[in-house]
Specification:
Elements: H1 2-16, H2 26-32, E1 39-41, E2 44-47, E3 51-63, E4 69-78, E5 83-91, E6 100-106, E7 111-117, E8 126-133, E9 142-147, E10 150-156, E11 158-159
Antiparallel strand pairs: 1-2, 2-3, 3-4, 3-10, 3-11, 4-5, 5-8, 6-7, 6-9, 9-10
């Protein structure tokens, strides 16, 4: 009886060890490290690649019912003329063969700009996209996230002076 109990316990432990791997893909870690980091020097933020920051706006991003989402969007403009758009949002994984696309809009002129596709590096609800462009992003004050053609999240961006 003791041998049978020991055998069953050992078998149960072996079967439970056969689950999904707990390792993280090194390529995903490398990709995660590529996001820009602005260094604060006194009152003036400085990007190691683009130089001094000349414009900054940000705002909360929230889900549009029935979608649930929360996050933040940032727009930054630098002395070298480049702009960086960053959107980080928590939202359910998109259904297979679909994705979330991010758009900026200038609410005064109704001009839109495509930012890109949200990615989840770790395969969970944390999604992000970052775009570096020579387009001046100062006039863009709204961010929208779409699943196909359906609006699932949006936010208003406000300049920080």
């Amino acid at each position: 009886m003791k041998k049978l109990s020991l055998f069953l316990l050992t078998a149960a432990l072996l079967v439970s060890a056969c689950g999904k791997s707990d390792t993280v893909d090194p390529a995903a870690v490398d990709k995660a490290k590529k996001y820009n980091q602005v260094i604060q020097k006194g009152d003036d933020p400085v990007d190691p690649v683009h130089g001094a920051q000349t414009f900054f706006s940000y705002g909360a991003v929230s889900g549009v019912a029935p979608a649930k989402a929360n996050g933040i969007g940032y727009l930054r403009r630098f002395k070298d003329g480049s702009s960086v758009v960053t959107v980080n949002v928590n939202i359910l994984k998109a259904p297979e063969k679909t994705n979330y696309s991010v758009m900026l809009r200038n609410t005064s002129t109704n001009v839109t700009m495509e930012v890109g596709i949200l990615e989840s590096i770790l395969g969970d609800t944390r999604h992000s996209v970052e775009l570096t462009t020579q387009t001046d992003v100062k006039g863009y004050n709204a961010v929208s996230i779409y699943l196909g053609k359906v609006l699932v999240a949006q936010g208003t961006l406000k300049e920080v002076k």
